[in-house]
Design a protein that fits this description.
By secondary structure, the protein is an all-alpha fold. It is 73% helix and 0% strand. The chain contains nine helices and no strands.
Length: 184
């Protein structure tokens, strides 16, 4: 970069593309987690991630830099998930507008917890999951990791649907307590 251009960047701050690159990199893991919580198929998550980033890039001039980038990005992703669901409902989970609004509330809470980055928060959750008893850890893996329904998980582990629901609920409670500073 020649000295004239370098001086201009320093005087005017980072360009829109530089700001977008920084914010996109900082929020990529959060966006993937958000999309995984709404979609069954990994290929749909990847496609919607790319599409979200493209739409965000095109609409960057509309982004108000005084507001948090994560909620704006999730808003774009949520709209794309709804559009995807209208086109191919089979691949989407929990995509009613009310569910998207509830997910946004939870992601905002998660963003305000003390941690340096979204990755560190995820690592804290993963550490708490590792502390779970084997049956509960298996429930988390099958339902959240592999995307099985509670009914399908019941078939896999040869348990009633009610027993599986209780395992998943207990696992969630223990992970939440662990993340908040208690122990699993």
């Amino acid at each position: 970069m020649n000295m004239g251009k370098e001086r201009a960047v320093k005087q005017h701050g980072p360009s829109g593309s530089e700001v977008f690159e920084i914010l996109a990199r900082e929020h990529a893991d959060m966006l993937v987690s958000y999309l995984r919580s709404l979609m069954v198929r990994q290929d749909a998550v990847e496609d919607l991630f790319q599409e979200t980033m493209l739409v965000a890039w095109r609409r960057l001039k509309e982004y108000d830099r005084s507001l948090p980038f994560g909620p704006w990005l999730r808003g774009i992703a949520g709209n794309l998930v709804m559009a995807h669901r209208r086109k191919a409902a089979r691949g989407a989970l929990n995509c009613e507008p009310e569910v998207l609004a509830a997910m946004e509330v939870e992601f905002r809470k998660f963003e305000h917890e003390p941690a340096d980055s979204f990755v560190q928060r995820i690592e804290r959750v993963a550490g708490c999951i590792e502390k779970l008893p084997p049956l509960l850890r298996e429930a988390v893996d099958l339902v959240y990791g592999r995307g099985l329904s509670v009914q399908a998980m019941g078939t896999v582990v040869q348990a009633t649907e009610e027993a599986v629901k209780k395992r998943v609920q207990r696992a969630r409670q223990l992970v939440a307590r662990c993340v908040q500073g208690g122990t699993a």
